[in-house]
């Protein structure tokens, strides 16, 4: 296994194999079977491009061979920051086949985050677009490379400038050693960390298992048309069943460059979309604007999760004939959902039941003891897809897992008498801004780099549109800084735009708890409305 990743204990691995969760299937074989069976069948649609299974399979082999020729080796890491384009799919498949471990970054990440991934993983390659959303990723790659001695190859989809052009990397397919089921297939970014980003190793065994199970519960198959509107590198769009699960099932993946209604909604009618994944903040916008784009949302199974879904909105949409499955997901491999056809009340008020019969859930109090059934507590999770340790994060892992391997989700939940999950809050210090997760500690540390800030505290403030927004409290060191000044400063530090505070309060001091931490509850209680 990849050094720095934590395998499951042998007795659990044996059990998951014996029970059929882990089958040795690897992601290296995605698209191959369909390419042989029905090569002309369309696998991926992106803008004007329609790529068949045979073409995709061939390109993945040629790209893998080309990358091997450049010198990339199994076990190397490669940052993949491609938007939802054919290149994303080609590169992901090629790296799986080569045994190089993609680190899936989001298009919204900037030099700060990408630099962090490069340092943590020692990535040898970076794959990005030339430009996307008005931003030049070659400049970003240049900034990151300057401080990342391991980063040898920058590969660009589009005009490469000083770098390598993705389309030019190709060599005659050659036999490559197949990865094994237990090998790490890729690294995903955690949405749950309060300080510097953490990465989650996902193995071929566990992810193939997730793809199969998600496709099964949603009856996704060869006739499915999956619309990836959220970034393809996020677990929700990548593999629930998402882009990879749809390719596995022989369906069609339709890629939207962004989730904005003008990009995504026209694709629904044009491509006959049957399934898509959305964060709750997008739902009302899509619901309202769908008719303008001739999109009939009733024809699409909507997978909704990532942040709290307002029950009234869920009800309004199901009353209007929309089909929603409500998900509680984590890139760490925790997945619960309401099954299609569940009663409207279940969909509106619960996140359903665990994906796997082998998933073990505990709901515990502050002392780690199981709560009385039906009471609120922290959700602990152990199962065939749930990680046993973050990548290269020993100290953090000691806190994030119980001694017997349960993952501490940091989310507060209660279980209904039928065993359905209800997310009630969280203990981890993050802001869930419309589904994008911002670690409070990471942002506080960045704010405290500003010369005008002596101390900072970041809290989640309820927001009618995003669910939560970022409110920063700062104690000034000199002249009190203004919100715009701090946002510009963070931007210049290379932070992603979704991490910039929405609101600023300048305060004389921060209240402390007995444990010398900022008392954020009191801070909010005493703050101006
Ligand atoms: C409240 N909070 C939720 C929900 C996730 C499918 C769907 C979502 C994600 C995802 C994902 C929530 N209500 N229904 O990976 O495969 C918050 C929790 C959780 C964190 C995980 C998927 N569903 N959340 O959002 O790794 O706080 O995954 O711990 O980005 O989102 O974030 P992330």
From TrEMBL:
GO molecular function: acid-thiol ligase activity
Pfam families tied to this protein: AMP-binding (PF00501), AMP-binding_C (PF13193)
Alphabetical UniProt keywords: Ligase
Key word Ligase present: yes
Record-annotated AMP-binding enzyme C-terminal domain positions: 442-517
Domain AMP-dependent synthetase/ligase span(s) in chain numbering: 34-391
Record InterPro entries: AMP-bd_C, AMP-bd_C_sf, AMP-dep_synth/lig_dom, ATP-dep_AMP-bd_enzyme
PANTHER family per the UniProt record, alphabetical: LONG-CHAIN-FATTY-ACID--COA LIGASE, NONRIBOSOMAL PEPTIDE SYNTHASE PES1 (EUROFUNG)-RELATED
UniProt protein name: (2,3-dihydroxybenzoyl)adenylate synthase
Organism: Amycolatopsis rubida
């Amino acid at each position: 296994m990849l050094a720095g990743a934590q395998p499951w204990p042998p007795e659990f691995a044996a059990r998951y194999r014996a029970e059929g969760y882990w089958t040795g299937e690897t992601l290296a074989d995605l698209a191959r079977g369909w390419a042989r069976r029905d090569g002309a069948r369309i696998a991926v649609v992106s803008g004007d491009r329609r790529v068949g299974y045979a073409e995709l399979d061939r390109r993945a082999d040629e790209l893998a061979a080309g990358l091997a020729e450049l010198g990339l080796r199994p076990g190397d890491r490669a940052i993949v920051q491609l938007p939802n384009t054919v290149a994303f799919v080609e590169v992901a498949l090629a790296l799986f086949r080569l045994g190089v471990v993609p680190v899936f970054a989001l298009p919204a990440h900037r030099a700060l985050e990408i630099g962090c991934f490069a340092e943590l993983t020692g990535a040898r390659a970076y794959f990005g677009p030339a430009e996307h959303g008005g931003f030049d990723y070659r400049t970003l790659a240049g900034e990151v490379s300057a401080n990342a001695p391991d980063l040898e190859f920058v590969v660009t989809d589009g005009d490469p400038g000083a770098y390598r052009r993705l389309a030019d990397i190709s060599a005659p397919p050659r036999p490559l050693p197949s990865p094994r089921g237990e090998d790490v297939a890729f690294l995903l970014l955690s949405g749950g960390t309060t300080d510097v980003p953490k990465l989650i190793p996902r193995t071929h065994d566990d992810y193939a298992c997730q793809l199969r199970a998600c496709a099964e519960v949603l009856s996704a198959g060869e006739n499915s048309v999956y619309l990836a509107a959220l970034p393809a590198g996020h677990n929700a769009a990548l593999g629930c069943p998402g882009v990879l699960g749809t390719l596995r099932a022989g369906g069609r993946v339709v890629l939207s460059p962004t989730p904005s209604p003008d990009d995504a909604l026209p694709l629904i009618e044009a491509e006959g979309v049957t399934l898509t994944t959305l964060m709750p903040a997008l739902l009302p916008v899509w619901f309202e604007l769908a008719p303008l784009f001739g999109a009939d949302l009733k024809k699409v199974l909507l997978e909704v999760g990532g942040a709290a879904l307002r029950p009234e909105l869920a009800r309004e949409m199901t009353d209007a004939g929309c089909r929603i499955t409500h998900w509680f997901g984590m890139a760490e491999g925790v997945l619960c959902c309401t099954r299609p056809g569940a009663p409207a009340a279940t969909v509106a008020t619960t996140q359903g039941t665990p994906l796997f019969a082998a998933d073990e859930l505990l709901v515990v109090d502050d002392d780690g003891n199981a709560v009385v059934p039906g009471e609120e507590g922290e959700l602990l999770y152990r199962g065939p897809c749930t990680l046993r340790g973050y990548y290269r994060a020993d100290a953090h892992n000691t806190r994030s897992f119980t001694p017997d391997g349960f993952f501490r989700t940091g989310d507060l939940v209660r279980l209904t008498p039928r065993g359905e999950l209800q997310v009630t809050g969280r203990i981890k210090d993050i802001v869930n801004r419309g589904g994008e997760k911002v670690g409070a500690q990471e942002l506080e540390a960045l704010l405290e780099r500003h010369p005008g800030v002596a101390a900072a505290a970041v809290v989640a403030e309820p927001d009618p549109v995003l669910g939560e927004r970022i409110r920063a409290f700062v104690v000034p060191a000199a002249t009190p800084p203004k919100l715009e000044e701090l946002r510009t400063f963070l931007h210049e530090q290379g932070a992603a735009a979704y991490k910039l505070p929405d609101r600023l309060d300048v305060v004389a001091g921060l209240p402390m708890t007995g444990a010398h931490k900022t008392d954020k509850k009191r801070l909010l209680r005493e703050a101006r409305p």
